[in-house]
Amino acid sequence: MVRLKLLIVVLMCVAGRLVAQPALSPVAKNGALKVEGGKIVNRQGVAPQLRGISFSWSLWGGRKYYTPETVDWLASDFKVSIIRAAMGIQPDSGYLQYPQQQKQLIVNTVNRAIKDGIYVLIDWHDHNANQHLKESKLFFAEMAKKYKGVPNVIYEIWNEPARVNWDTVKNYALQVISIIRKYDADNLIVVGSPNWDQDVDVAAADRITGYKNIAYSFHFYASDPNHQQHLQDKANKAIKVGLPLFVTEWGVGESNGDGEFNMAKTTAWLKWMEANQLSWANWNITDKHETTAILQKGAPATGRWTANQLTPAGAYIRDKLRELNR
Q1: Residues 38, 41, 42, CA angle at the centre, nearest 5°?
Q2: Is 156 a catalytic residue?
Q3: Distance between CA atoms of 247 and 227, rounded to whole angstroms?
Q4: Which of 12, 159, 222, 256 could make an SS bond with 266 (beta carbons 3.0 to 4.6 A apart)?
């Protein structure tokens, strides 16, 4: 009996089935997330500071890593407490063209994260989500029905709004949030902000009201010369007035995914996230030849990567995850 309790500590209903959370897993320890006092907190009211990795766009080369084995390896070897399933919407082979195929990739990934007891961001990975409101509402309605009350699941409803104003982002968000809350009253929802999730200070001045458990995404690329103190100041301003932030994407390189990997700048940003107890997902699981990719070309889609199959970014992020998520 004692052994049984050590193996299973949480049972939940997913699509009509009881699913166990592994003992001592991030979700078993923290439970459902909520927003309190301007922070994302766990069931004990403490900021859990989740740390993990984002899958790449579910298009092109990054798509091959959307496998159960990859999720398992990230949970067991990289020690992630969260992953991000970045469902590409456009231009090629995305959700707009192949909705069932793309949706199945996400569902398979989410279900494996639940099995492994880690959190998962369901990310509508679209710079132009306001142009695809109908499709987004249908997708998130289905996800909310499927994962209602499952504490692993977080809805990220618009990745990196581009050059649009906050009114546009807010109007889109309110419509999608209302659909999610029709079916899932409690799970955390992450809202984007203008200028590729950088203008969180603008969102903080006119935040969404009328709904609970709403957080806001903040993105940066640590080595980018345009993503330094002035960008951190924007986030500090938002934090100071109590806007709950979630760093749903950041990279060690520059904003194009490539460029320099500046260790000093990366270390400074990482220390900043730790000091502010911000949860984060690093970009990204791919073997594309660029700075922020964590895998060398040809690394298998089944996990179990050797040291030689990790890029400098991959080795660094793995070390940091294993150190910080102990």
Answers
A1: 165
A2: no
A3: 14
A4: 222
Residue 190, domain CATH? 3.20.20.80
Query: Would you state the torsion angle of the CA atoms of residues 326, 263, 162, 207, taken in this order, to the nearest 10 degrees?
Result: 50
CA-CA distances (angstroms) from residue 147 to 26, 88, 153, 262?
18, 20, 7, 39
Q: Is residue 13 one of the residues assigned to a domain?
A: no
**Catalytic position from the list 36, 69, 142, 160:** 160
Residue 295, both tokens: 């895998």
Q: Which residues contact 88 (CB under 8 A, 6 or more apart)?
A: 57, 58, 59, 94, 95, 102, 125, 126
Name residues whose C-beta falls within 8 Å of residue 4's C-beta, 6 or more positions apart in sequence.
Answer: none
Does residue 278 fall inside a structural domain?
A: yes
Looking at the structure of the chain, the number of domains it has is 1
Asked, for residue 77, whether it belongs to a domain, the answer is: yes
DSSP state of 12: E
Note down the domain range covering 157: 32-324
CA distance 148 to 317: 31
| Pairwise CA distance, residues 285 & 309, whole Å | 12
Distances (CA, A) of 219 to 122, 169, 216: 16, 16, 10
Query: At 102, which amino acid appears?
Result: Q
- Considering the candidates 249, 260, 290, 323, report the single residue annotated as catalytic: 249
Residue 181 CA to chain centroid, in angstroms?
A: 19
pLDDT tens, position by position, 153-168: 999 999 999 989 999 9
Q: Which of 90-94, 110-114, 300-304 has the lowest mean pLDDT?
A: 90-94
Catalytic-residue membership of 260: no
Tell me, yes or no, whether 166 lies in a domain: yes
Residues 213-251: pLDDT tens digits? 999 999 999 999 999 999 999 999 999 999 999 999 999
